[in-house]
Design goal:
Order of helices and strands: EEEHHEHHHEEHEEEEEEEEEEHHEEHEE
Largest sheet: 9 strands, mixed
Radius of gyration: 20 Å
Helix content: 25-40%
CATH topology of the domain at 64-161: T-fold
Strand order of the largest sheet: 2-3-7-8-11-16-17-18-20
Number of strands: 20
Shape: globular
Number of helices: 9
Strand content: 25-35%
Structural class: alpha+beta
Distance between the termini: 34 Å
């Protein structure tokens, strides 16, 4: 599976006696490659901490998976049966409350309640070969049901829904949440320098020796990076693109990023990258790219302000690049990339 963001091979091989070690471990979680690097720690300590992070990721994956058996899928099934009240873990309720806040902040463009629509388009699957667009009548029925996170009442360990059409899909949130959980755990273990990459959603702790951690932003139409950026301590970066989960039908590309206002995959956008910092840097870098993407060329910059994002890049369907001034000054563009339009 092609990553939204490519972690560059710029960690550099350590040489010379006495230099701090770099410990790296990979795994496959959340349906994608996870890569964790720890700098300057004893190997046994790093291995134990990273091992626990990967165990935590497995638990989160089981809890938050949208269609395979687990905590969230059980809640979704009971909502579909029009259950008056669904009891679940307080941890999941807190996550749903958090996603509901981001949904409201984005005017509903980030809408995890559209799981049935994602399923209708065939994206709740591991492969999209042979997918075809759903019938207009099916789209119309979904639009009439209009599920949203506002349909849920969330408190304690219970979930109530006034709309049985709600089916929560946290695909636009879970990886960012996992980044924040992992970063907090590593810090609690005294690990101050690490890079965590979940399928291209990346968070940095500290530095890689004397230099910042450096990552590359995936080119949406070519192998390799379109640009590189150094991440400071606590910063996270994530990209939403039309090039990872998509299918082609009659010469047209249909991606998994769906506009809940039209129930159709977004057209005219190749990729949106968001860089964030703060206590929820991972979540913001994951979540905010979705409403920016859905807002399109005319609305992405205003939506960035609405989501509190100052560092973002937007690539339209023709490959034209726009980037906020705060991010532009930090990027190192790859050779041959067309000049970007810098916006305030």
């Amino acid at each position: 599976m092609r990553s939204f963001l490519t972690l560059l091979a710029l960690l550099l091989t350590l040489s010379g006696c006495g230099e701090p070690p770099l410990y790296k471990q990979q795994a496959y979680v959340f349906g994608t490659l996870v890569d964790i690097s720890v700098y300057g720690e004893d190997e046994a300590k790093a291995q134990a901490a990273v091992g626990q992070v990967l165990k935590d990721f497995d638990k989160l994956h089981e809890m938050l998976h949208a269609w395979k058996p687990g905590t969230l899928s059980r809640v979704n099934d009971l909502i579909a049966q029009d259950a008056a009240e669904v009891a679940t873990s307080p941890g999941l309720v807190a996550i749903l409350q958090d996603t509901a806040r981001y949904s409201a902040q984005s005017d509903g463009l980030f809408n995890p309640a559209i799981g049935n629509l994602i399923r209708l388009w065939g994206f709740q699957a591991d492969s999209f070969d042979g997918n075809v667009p759903p019938a207009p009548a099916e789209i119309g029925r979904w639009l009439k049901a209009a599920p949203s996170m506002a349909d849920l009442a969330l408190a304690g360990h219970t979930v109530r829904s006034r709309n049985p059409a709600v089916r929560v899909d946290l695909g636009g949130y879970a990886k960012g949440y996992a980044l924040d959980v992992a970063a907090a755990y590593l810090k609690s273990q005294g690990i101050d320098n690490a890079l965590i990459n979940i399928g291209g959603n990346v968070i940095a702790l500290g530095k890689h020796g004397e230099r910042p951690w450096r990552v590359g932003i995936q080119h949406p139409r070519q192998a390799g990076a379109i640009a590189m950026v150094d991440l400071n301590d606590g910063e996270a970066i994530g990209t939403s693109g039309d090039y990872q989960r998509y299918f082609d039908y009659q010469g047209r590309r249909y991606c998994h990023l769906i506009d809940p206002r039209t129930a159709l995959p977004v057209q005219g956008v190749q990729a949106v990258t968001v860089l964030a910092r703060g206590a929820k840097a991972g979540v913001v870098s994951d979540v905010a790219s979705k409403p920016l993407f859905i807002s399109g060329a005319a609305g992405w910059r205003a939506m960035a302000d609405k989501m509190g994002v100052r560092e973002a890049m937007f690539i339209d369907g023709d490959g034209r690049i726009s980037v906020t001034a705060d991010l532009a000054r930090r990027l190192q563009w790859s050779a041959g990339v067309p000049a970007a339009t810098v916006v305030p």
